[in-house]
Write a structure and sequence with these properties.
The chain has about 400 residues and is α+β, with helices and mostly antiparallel strands. It has 2 domains: about 270 residues, no CATH class; about 100 residues. Helices cover about 60% and strands about 15% of the residues. It has 14 helices and 6 strands. Strands 1-2-3-4-5-6 form a 6-stranded antiparallel beta sheet. Helix 1 runs antiparallel to helix 3.
Length: about 400
């Protein structure tokens, strides 16, 4: 690779890496916050939360990486065009491959990274997430025995423990059970204990009462000396690890177990995800070709209606949205599976055709005009708002 090509590759890589980092940071924060209930509901430690949040990253990288490549290439070429570097390169007699080769090298590296992450790292990470969530749900000691705090065991069942006594017993137990329709049960006990009998988790409550409210509004109170509340149904359900098609490896998707209950329920979903794994790693290359077709040539500033990066990202978003739509349909209809291959190939083919014929890939003129008009109107309104808030100094005005 020539010095000039290494220079372009280095600049493109730095911009793409920065775009990848910040985009991952935003998406990861949103995904992590959606799972904050692991700490708030199940009493897990902050370390368990960050462990779970880290395991989410491999599923985000293959989605974000193609856009980072498109941003890196389009932004670098746009800056080089603004600094007249592309014009100088062209005037010096260098071929277009001088700018195309570094972009393709970056895209191919991103493709290999995406394939490795999605098919090697991500299935294991997803399985780790399932395991961690199952363990958190099954950890009744951290769920129930938290002094002075209501804990949700399942839908309609809440437990509160007033204090944990030195000998391991529980004091001040309150259980609210509304799982049965139109019937509310409230258990109060002075003391009790969480025990395990024959592998079954039991909450034993001593010296308490049960309040039962019927649909008619009648309340009955029953006093008990000892009452056993069976919690094993919740631990057994939570300890059953559920593994979906997206959690499986590529080899398993190619030859799934015929006895897999999820495969029996929807074999087409396994087939669809298998073909998604074989095609989604191509999108860094597709988006790189789109960025090259949009911003790969030297052009006058007057020619650009919209910033090339915005154009490249808009086209990439349209292509990706179509692919997501086809992937969703393919999970229930096998006729959509060929589209998973057609969409990236057609997008790449159109980009190559634009590059070969020296035609810049642009959005429709009416789209760009509307976008320019909208941006101008927003700018005018912001100016008016600024003048209203802060006022304006009159021309030639000054203090008397």
């Amino acid at each position: 690779m020539k010095i000039l090509e290494r220079y372009i590759l280095r600049r493109t890589f730095v911009v793409a890496l920065a775009a990848l980092f910040w985009t991952l940071a935003v998406v990861w924060t949103v995904q992590a916050l959606s799972r904050i209930n692991l700490v708030t509901d199940s009493g897990q430690s902050a370390l368990a939360f960050f462990h779970l949040a880290t395991l989410v990253l491999p599923s985000i990288i293959p989605v974000v990486l193609p856009f980072a490549v498109a941003i890196g290439i389009s932004q670098t070429l746009t800056m080089m065009n603004s600094d007249s570097e592309l014009a100088v390169i062209s005037a010096a007699g260098s071929s277009r491959m001088t700018t195309i080769r570094p972009a393709l090298a970056l895209a191919l590296g991103a493709c290999l990274t995406s394939f490795f992450v999605q098919n090697v790292i991500d299935p294991g990470a997803r399985l780790g997430v399932r395991t961690l969530l199952a363990q958190a749900s099954a950890d009744l000691l951290s769920t129930v025995i938290t002094e002075g705090t209501f804990r949700k065991v399942s839908d309609g069942l809440y437990v509160q423990v007033g204090e944990r006594l030195p000998d391991g017993r529980l004091g001040g137990i309150f259980v609210a059970d509304s799982r049965q329709k139109d019937v509310d049960l409230a258990y109060y006990a002075k003391e009790g204990a969480l025990t395990n009998r024959n592998g079954r988790a039991m909450l034993v409550m001593n010296d308490g009462v049960v309040h039962r409210k019927t649909p008619a509004g009648e309340v009955s109170v029953i006093r008990f000396t000892s009452y056993v509340f069976d919690l094993s149904v919740f631990t057994s359900a939570s300890q059953h690890l559920v593994i979906y098609a997206k959690d499986r490896s590529l080899a398993y998707l190619a030859d799934p177990d015929p006895n897999d209950p999820f495969f029996k329920a929807n074999p087409q979903e396994f087939n669809s995800i298998f073909h998604q794994r074989l095609t989604e790693w191509l999108y860094p290359l597709v988006f790189a070709l789109i960025a090259l077709a949009v911003a790969g040539d030297a052009r006058s500033h007057r020619e650009a209606r919209v910033h090339p990066m915005i154009t490249a990202l808009t086209i990439a978003l349209i292509v990706r949205w179509i692919s997501f739509f086809a992937a969703g349909k393919a999970e229930t209809d096998a006729n959509y599976v060929p589209l998973l291959y057609v969409i990236p190939l057609v997008a790449a083919g159109l980009s190559v055709w634009c590059l070969a014929t020296n035609r810049p890939m642009e959005l429709p003129v009416n789209w760009t005009d509307r976008a320019a008009t909208l941006l101008r109107q927003v700018g005018e309104r912001l100016t008016v708002l600024r003048l209203r808030l802060f006022g304006a100094s009159s021309p030639g005005g000054g203090s008397a």
